[in-house]
């Protein structure tokens, strides 16, 4: 039904959304029925269903799994076996996950039909934003999109990221000139520095026609603004002379930019120079692109650390987090674009996959010494194991307001009762479709001794600490952490990159203030951490402040290891010794918590 939508027909788009959400329960049952009709005879499902397509049998017999459980099947297909060991439809390619949020990259099967279904999400976002922002059809989006060179499996199947798959598709190549300021050649350039430079240049040349700014993740937009800080003088020189810098050697970029940079424009160069030459870059996006009505970028989950920074740069331009998805599946879209960025909820789309939800007892603490899946306690795992189809995961129709859930997905492309690893909170309903707020990736971020600190706990603790700095004019640009266990007792180490609001130069940090920040982080962590600190089984938290550009170097490191700049997420916790070395190379000052804990 929803597959019939026309991209520019936003009235029809709203109609489709209403039909989908009003009939969510029925559509979910149809989706599961269709998946089983197609795939019950595969080697994987035959082990549990014996060729039957009964939905209740599926829920009773098919286990809830992680990627490691299906990886042997993925590997067999990658090495040349037919895809029907896992799914009936032929695999067109493998989608590679970013690998920066959950460990090693994963290979997720993709079919031609499923790719078309995923692009539907983009057509449904369009009618939503047009209801909230007028005049979008009169301009273009200044896009900051990038692609990554793909690879091949031994059997010859293409492996690439989902964003690269989309940006290299014929449908995007056809639509890009109508909606983006960036020529398609600059987006498809494999040299990310040349690509970013040319996309910013064409965005500045067309600044009066820019009605929105777009990147996939907030981290990419934040990096692009920092890149602009470092290159605005050169960009102005190009605009002033009408000549592109010699170091831009990609022929596609040079030819495409030459069609836009057609003559010297000293007046525009003076305007941009005047704006960028200010000591403070507060509101720089609004000043450079005065007609921009919103910023389109995912800023939930770990990306929420960039909200205050993008607010600072945005100068009042609303931040819109459009959708929630992953390499495995599309989940939902944001029906209220103007909601507080910290409180975004996504309405699940019932036709994208079959969804189940594992209840999570947030108040139970989930702090176990043993862990069988990314920090999920063994107590929680046994509850799932003992469910026998009657207790445990619930479906679309049985989720409860205010409850926390871990999402489980069954797709058309060979994922059956697959734990994505995301914890969500049910915040409401749109018609009969649930609306969820993203809470955290369900994995242990930091771990020493018996303590396991989650992503959500760490984000909250750092959020409390950074508020101590903001009245002094400092902003936390980005952060990461790692567990230092080379000495006994071990300690948690934070890396912060700071920015001074009023100037590009950062004044000397007050040691007392920074030590207080360390103490605030520790005070914000849970009882287990505090008790281990009291017993001297964890040493005082350390904060290492790094110089400007250090986290850019970290992104470059991960990109050099195969990550996609488009899908890059700054890891909350670093486990790679090489990555820690990158951050340590930029350390300019160190501070320690002076907090003493007496809990008894």
TrEMBL record:
Task: Give start and end of each GH3 C-terminal domain.
Answer: 457-578
For this protein, what is any one GO molecular function term? Answer: acid-amino acid ligase activity
Supply the source organism for this entry: Gossypium mustelinum
What does the entry list under GO cellular component? cytoplasm
Protein name per UniProt: Indole-3-acetic acid-amido synthetase GH3.17-like
Q: Signal peptide location in the record?
A: none
Task: Tell me the Pfam families matching this sequence.
Answer: GH3 (PF03321), GH3_C (PF23572), GH3_M (PF23571)
What InterPro entries does this protein map onto?
A: GH3, GH3_C, GH3_M
The GH3 middle domain covers: 346-441
The keyword Ligase appears for this protein:
yes
Q: Which family does it belong to?
A: Belongs to the IAA-amido conjugating enzyme family.
UniProt keyword terms in alphabetical order: Ligase
């Amino acid at each position: 039904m929803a597959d019939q939508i026309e991209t520019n027909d936003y009235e029809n788009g709203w109609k489709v959304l209403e039909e989908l959400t009003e009939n969510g329960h029925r559509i979910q049952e149809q989706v599961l029925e269709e998946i089983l009709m197609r795939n019950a005879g595969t080697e994987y499902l035959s082990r549990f269903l014996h060729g039957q397509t009964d939905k209740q049998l599926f829920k009773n017999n098919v286990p809830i799994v992680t990627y490691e459980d299906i990886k042997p099947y993925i590997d067999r297909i990658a090495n040349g076996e037919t895809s029907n060991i896992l799914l009936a439809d032929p695999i067109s390619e493998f989608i590679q996950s970013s690998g920066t949020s959950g460990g090693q990259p994963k290979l997720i099967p993709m079919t031609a039909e499923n790719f078309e279904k995923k692009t539907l999400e983009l057509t449904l976002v369009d009618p939503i934003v047009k209801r909230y922002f007028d005049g979008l059809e009169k301009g273009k989006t200044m896009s900051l999109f990038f692609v990554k060179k793909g690879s091949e499996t031994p059997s010859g199947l293409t492996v690439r990221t989902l964003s690269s798959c989309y940006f290299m598709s014929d449908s995007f190549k056809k639509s890009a000139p109508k909606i983006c300021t960036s020529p398609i050649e600059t987006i498809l350039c494999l040299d990310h520095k040349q690509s970013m430079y040319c996309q910013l240049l064409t965005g500045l040349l067309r600044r009066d026609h820019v009605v929105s700014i777009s990147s996939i993740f907030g981290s990419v937009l934040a990096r692009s603004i920092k890149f602009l800080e470092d290159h605005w003088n050169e960009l102005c020189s190009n605009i002033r002379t009408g000549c592109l810098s010699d170091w831009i050697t990609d022929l596609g970029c040079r030819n495409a930019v030459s069609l836009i940079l057609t003559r010297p424009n000293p007046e525009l160069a003076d305007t941009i120079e005047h704006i960028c030459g200010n000591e403070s870059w507060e509101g720089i996006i609004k000043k450079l692109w005065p007609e921009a009505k919103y910023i389109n970028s995912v800023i939930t989950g770990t990306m929420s650390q960039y909200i205050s920074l993008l607010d600072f740069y945005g100068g009042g331009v609303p931040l819109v987090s459009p959708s929630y998805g992953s390499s495995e599946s599309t989940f939902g879209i944001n029906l209220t674009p103007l909601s507080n960025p910290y409180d975004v909820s996504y309405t699940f789309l019932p036709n994208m996959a079959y969804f189940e939800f594992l209840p999570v007892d947030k108040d139970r603490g989930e702090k176990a010494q043993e862990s069988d899946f990314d920090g999920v306690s063994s107590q929680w795992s046994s509850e799932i194991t003992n469910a026998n189809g009657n207790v445990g995961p619930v479906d679309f129709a049985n989720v409860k307001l205010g409850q926390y859930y871990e999402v489980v997905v069954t797709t058309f492309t060979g994922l059956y009762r697959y734990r994505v690893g995301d914890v969500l909170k049910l915040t409401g309903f749109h018609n009969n479709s649930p609306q969820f707020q993203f809470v955290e990736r369900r994995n242990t971020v930091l771990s020493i001794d018996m303590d396991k600190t989650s992503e959500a706990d760490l984000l909250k603790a750092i959020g409390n600490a950074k508020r101590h700095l903001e009245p002094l004019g400092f902003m936390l640009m980005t952060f990461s952490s790692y567990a230092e266990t080379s000495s006994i007792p071990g300690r948690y180490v934070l890396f912060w990159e700071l920015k001074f609001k009023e100037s590009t130069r950062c004044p000397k940090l007050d040691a007392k203030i920074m030590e207080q920040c360390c103490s605030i982080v520790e005070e914000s962590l849970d009882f287990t951490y505090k008790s281990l600190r009291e017993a001297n089984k964890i040493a005082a938290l350390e904060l290492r402040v790094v110089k400007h550009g250090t986290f850019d170097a970290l992104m470059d490191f991960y990109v050099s290891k195969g990550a996609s700049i488009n899908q890059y997420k700054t890891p909350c916790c670093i486990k790679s010794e090489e990555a820690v070395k990158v951050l340590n190379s930029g350390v300019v000052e160190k501070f320690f918590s002076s907090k003493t804990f007496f809990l008894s």
